[in-house]
Amino acid sequence: MAGGSGEQELPEMSLVDILTPSNLMPLFASHPELVQTLFPHLPVDLPAPPTEDSLSRIISSPQFRAAVRNFDQALRTGLLGGLVRGLGLPEEAGTSIEAFLRAIQEQARSESADSMDTD
Fold it and tell me: Could you tell me which residue ranges the DEUBAD domain spans (predicted)?
Protein backbone atom coordinates (compact mmCIF):
# COMPACT_ATOMS: atom_id res chain seq x y z
CA MET A 1 0.00 0.00 0.00
CA ALA A 2 1.37 3.34 -1.01
CA GLY A 3 1.14 5.81 1.85
CA GLY A 4 -1.93 4.13 3.35
CA SER A 5 -4.28 6.39 1.38
CA GLY A 6 -6.46 3.48 0.35
CA GLU A 7 -5.96 4.23 -3.33
CA GLN A 8 -4.46 1.60 -5.57
CA GLU A 9 -1.39 2.79 -7.39
CA LEU A 10 -1.83 2.52 -11.15
CA PRO A 11 0.96 0.94 -13.16
CA GLU A 12 3.19 3.49 -14.84
CA MET A 13 2.25 4.04 -18.48
CA SER A 14 4.83 3.58 -21.18
CA LEU A 15 4.58 4.78 -24.76
CA VAL A 16 6.49 1.64 -25.76
CA ASP A 17 3.53 -0.39 -24.47
CA ILE A 18 0.95 1.92 -26.06
CA LEU A 19 2.43 2.65 -29.50
CA THR A 20 2.64 -0.95 -30.67
CA PRO A 21 1.86 -2.30 -34.13
CA SER A 22 -1.15 -4.15 -32.68
CA ASN A 23 -2.54 -0.84 -31.39
CA LEU A 24 -1.53 1.43 -34.27
CA MET A 25 -2.49 -0.65 -37.31
CA PRO A 26 -6.21 -0.89 -36.40
CA LEU A 27 -6.16 2.85 -35.67
CA PHE A 28 -4.72 3.57 -39.12
CA ALA A 29 -7.26 1.21 -40.72
CA SER A 30 -10.23 2.85 -39.02
CA HIS A 31 -8.95 6.42 -39.52
CA PRO A 32 -7.18 6.59 -42.90
CA GLU A 33 -6.96 10.39 -42.60
CA LEU A 34 -4.29 9.83 -39.93
CA VAL A 35 -2.01 8.27 -42.52
CA GLN A 36 -2.29 11.36 -44.72
CA THR A 37 -1.56 13.59 -41.73
CA LEU A 38 1.48 11.51 -40.77
CA PHE A 39 2.76 10.99 -44.32
CA PRO A 40 4.95 14.13 -44.46
CA HIS A 41 6.77 12.90 -41.34
CA LEU A 42 7.48 9.40 -42.61
CA PRO A 43 10.61 8.25 -44.45
CA VAL A 44 10.87 9.71 -47.95
CA ASP A 45 11.39 6.33 -49.62
CA LEU A 46 7.83 5.15 -48.87
CA PRO A 47 5.36 4.57 -51.65
CA ALA A 48 2.85 7.40 -51.97
CA PRO A 49 0.43 6.86 -50.36
CA PRO A 50 2.05 4.47 -47.90
CA THR A 51 0.69 0.95 -47.97
CA GLU A 52 -0.49 -0.97 -44.94
CA ASP A 53 2.58 -3.18 -45.30
CA SER A 54 5.00 -0.24 -45.37
CA LEU A 55 3.37 1.36 -42.32
CA SER A 56 3.53 -1.95 -40.49
CA ARG A 57 7.25 -2.28 -41.31
CA ILE A 58 7.93 1.25 -40.03
CA ILE A 59 6.14 0.88 -36.71
CA SER A 60 7.69 -2.55 -36.18
CA SER A 61 11.21 -1.36 -36.98
CA PRO A 62 13.94 -1.09 -34.36
CA GLN A 63 14.38 2.58 -35.31
CA PHE A 64 10.73 3.42 -34.59
CA ARG A 65 10.79 1.47 -31.32
CA ALA A 66 13.98 3.32 -30.28
CA ALA A 67 12.41 6.69 -31.13
CA VAL A 68 9.34 5.83 -29.05
CA ARG A 69 11.60 4.80 -26.13
CA ASN A 70 13.53 8.08 -26.42
CA PHE A 71 10.32 10.14 -26.53
CA ASP A 72 8.97 8.16 -23.58
CA GLN A 73 12.12 8.88 -21.58
CA ALA A 74 12.06 12.58 -22.46
CA LEU A 75 8.45 12.81 -21.25
CA ARG A 76 9.37 11.04 -18.02
CA THR A 77 12.13 13.56 -17.34
CA GLY A 78 9.99 16.61 -18.13
CA LEU A 79 12.30 17.90 -20.87
CA LEU A 80 9.67 18.50 -23.53
CA GLY A 81 7.99 21.74 -22.47
CA GLY A 82 9.01 23.57 -25.65
CA LEU A 83 8.01 20.70 -27.92
CA VAL A 84 4.57 20.30 -26.43
CA ARG A 85 3.95 24.06 -26.64
CA GLY A 86 4.87 23.79 -30.33
CA LEU A 87 2.18 21.11 -30.68
CA GLY A 88 -0.37 23.49 -29.20
CA LEU A 89 -0.47 21.68 -25.86
CA PRO A 90 -0.05 23.17 -22.40
CA GLU A 91 3.50 23.06 -21.04
CA GLU A 92 2.52 20.64 -18.27
CA ALA A 93 1.83 18.06 -21.01
CA GLY A 94 5.61 17.70 -21.25
CA THR A 95 5.98 16.62 -17.64
CA SER A 96 4.78 13.02 -17.82
CA ILE A 97 3.36 10.42 -20.15
CA GLU A 98 -0.06 10.59 -18.51
CA ALA A 99 -0.16 14.40 -18.74
CA PHE A 100 0.90 14.21 -22.42
CA LEU A 101 -1.77 11.64 -23.31
CA ARG A 102 -4.47 13.56 -21.43
CA ALA A 103 -3.51 16.79 -23.22
CA ILE A 104 -3.63 15.03 -26.61
CA GLN A 105 -7.04 13.60 -25.74
CA GLU A 106 -8.35 17.01 -24.67
CA GLN A 107 -6.96 18.63 -27.84
CA ALA A 108 -8.69 15.98 -29.97
CA ARG A 109 -11.99 16.53 -28.15
CA SER A 110 -11.68 20.28 -28.60
CA GLU A 111 -10.88 19.98 -32.32
CA SER A 112 -13.75 17.53 -32.78
CA ALA A 113 -16.17 19.91 -31.07
CA ASP A 114 -14.87 22.81 -33.17
CA SER A 115 -15.35 20.87 -36.41
CA MET A 116 -18.92 19.95 -35.37
CA ASP A 117 -19.64 23.64 -34.70
CA THR A 118 -18.53 24.59 -38.22
CA ASP A 119 -20.41 21.78 -40.00
Answer: 6-114
- The domain in which residue 74 lies consists of 47-119
pTM of the model: 0.70
Whether residue 112 is contained in a domain is answered as yes
Total domains in the chain come to: 1
> Tell me: the pLDDT tens digits for 56-113?
888 899 999 999 999 898 888 878 878 888 888 888 888 888 888 899 899 888 887 8
For residue 76, is it within any domain? yes
- Residue 80 half-sphere exposure toward CB, CA atoms < 13 A: 23
Is residue 42 in a domain? Answer: no
Domain for residue 21, yes or no? no
